[in-house]
Every structure is written in structure tokens, then in C-alpha cells.
Amino acid sequence: MPEEQNDTMASPKLAKYRFYLRQRPALLVALSILAVVFFLAVTGLSRAYYRQREFLGDRWSARGYADLKANNYDAAVTDFRTALLYSRDDYFYQLNLAEALIGLSRTGEASAYLLNLWDREPENGVVNLELARIARQQGRTDQAIRYYHGAVYAAWQRGEESQRREARFELVDLLLQNKDQGDAEAELIALAANANDDPALQKRIGDLFMRAGDYEHALAAYRTALRTNQHDEKAMAGAGNAAFQLQRYLLAQHYLKSAGVADSTDLHSAQLLQTTESVLRMDPFRPQISSADRSKIVMDAFSAAGHRLSSCPLPKNVTAGSVGSPPSLSDEWNTLKPRINPLGLRRNPDLADSAMDLVFRIEHQTSLVCGTPTGTDLALLLIAKLHEGS
Prior knowledge:
Serine Threonine Protein Phosphatase 5, Tetratricopeptide repeat; 18 helices; rod-shaped; mainly alpha
């Protein structure tokens, strides 16, 4: 009996347990579905939240781009700072914020952002270029050169090659200011090799070559500019100046005349043209000149050298007048003077060479004592340099 009673009492419990076991898979499925639903809901809300933040960041950055383009730097700083609230690590938001700060001359704050960006992407061209400009402004020349090199050899995006070229232009300008002619010339040659025939670009290259003292490359750049625009007065003036420095006076005359016709206010070109024509006119050694014209040129040059000696007395030679000492230039000039006339020059063709040798020595020595001359004396000095070693 007791056993039967125990079985009777246990059967309800057993029935409940069996019912629970039968319902457990359904419960697990229901709970799993509920968990998935909650997960999807949270994921959707999270995505919506981040999409909203991204949308707000993009909207504020778009305002910032517009204000930056309009040089409204105060507003741009506010815009990009607000954009960064929604996307704190966005690279381009920080970069544009730095550029807006630079526009406000707040270079210290800009440097902090730029240095952080440089650590993240040391090959970024814009970052290197802006850091170079700040370093140059602050007088940190070595660092500026390093960052400029980083900008020149950076991986610029398509359509930004002009930025690479601008970085190299600024680097050359800095090197020239720093009297580093060799490195500046090397960068200029690389710049010219990759430049197109745009006249403004070629003129800029030519101007820098002139500053570097590389007149041959300068002349080539100016002539390239003139092939595209043959009426460009700045390129003509530059070509004339370069040819003048190269002692190619006929070519200089051609370009300087054209520059004067194109721009009558160009006084520098007019002065160079006047000197150039004096050199061409007063050179007794130029080809296809008659003996009569040559004699007249020699007499005029000899007379001009005498006037130069009078206006620029040379220091007396302490040995002058002693036995075996060389005569002074004044003594040589006075000794030769009676023979420098049409008859004397006609009778002795070699006398012209002796006279011009003395003229050249007088012009050279007086330029050392009294400085670079002007007018006829400058022309004679240039003719002397033209025929050095001949």
C-alpha cells in the first residue's frame, strides 16, 4: 500500500517534469529568437546612431570646406571643431582644421594637429608642405628643408601634382635665400625637367635660374615660354638679361629691343640694351669692320680710358720711378698717347692691340678701386671680359 501511495504521489511530479522537458526546445527557440531580435534592434539603433553622427560630421565639414575656400577662417575653425565632435579621429577634418588655424596665423595650434597627422601618415604631401611653411616662418631652416623634401617626394593624389611643384618652388626659394646654390640648382633642373610649356611656369623657372646664376638654363626657360607666347614682354626681358650675362650680345640686343617695344616702362631692359649696343659698337675686334672704323674705335676707347684714370686715380706704385720698376698705368698711357692717331694706327697695325690691352688693364684696375663703372667704361670693361684669353 505505501508503495502504491508513493507512486500515486510521484506521478503528478513526473508528469510536470515530462511536460517541462517537452516544452524546453520551444522555450529555447523562443528565447533565441527574442535574443536575436534584441541584438538586431540594438545593432540597428547603433548603426542609426553612428550614421547620424557621420551625417552631422559631414554636414559640419561641408560648411567648413565652404568657409575655408572663402577664407572665412574663424567660421571654418568652428565648423571643423564641431565636425570632430562627431568623428574625433577623422584625418581630413583635423587637416582642414589645421589649415584654417594657419589662415588665422595660429601656427602653434596648427602644428600640434599637423605633427599628430604626420605621425600617422609621414608621407602625406599636404601635411609635409604645411609643416615646411611653418618651420620656415619660424626660422627653422633645416627642418623646413626636410619637410619640403617630404612634400616633394610624397604620394600626392591625382590632380594635386601642382602642389608637388609648388613645394619644389618654395624649396628652391629657401635654398637660394640660404645661399645653397648647388642644391638649389639641382632642384631647379629636376623641376624644369618635369615642367610643361606653360609660359608663366617657364618664366618662374627662368627667374629662379637667374637667381641661381645659371644663365644658360634661364635662357632656355625664357625661350620655351616665348615659343608659346612670343609677345610675352617679361619672358623677352628675361631672355635678354640672360643672354647679356652670357656675353651673347647680339642675341641680348634682339630680345631687349623686343622687350622695350612691348613695355616702354621697363627701365632695366632699356639700360641693358644701351650697354649692349655700346659693347657691340665699341668692340674693335668684331668681324667685318673696316680699318678706318677700327682706328676710330681704338682712339675713342683710349681717350675714355684716360678720362677714367683722371676720375679714378690709382694708388701709386711704391716702386714706380725706381730702377727696373714697371711704369704706372698713367705713365704707360701718357707714353702711348702721341702715337694713338689715325696715321700712327695706319702705319702700325699692331699698335691697336697694344692700345686696347692698356685700355682693358686700366678699366680692370679702376673697377677694383672705384667700383663697377657705367656708360662707356662699363662697355669697355665688358669687352675686356669678352676677349679674355683670346
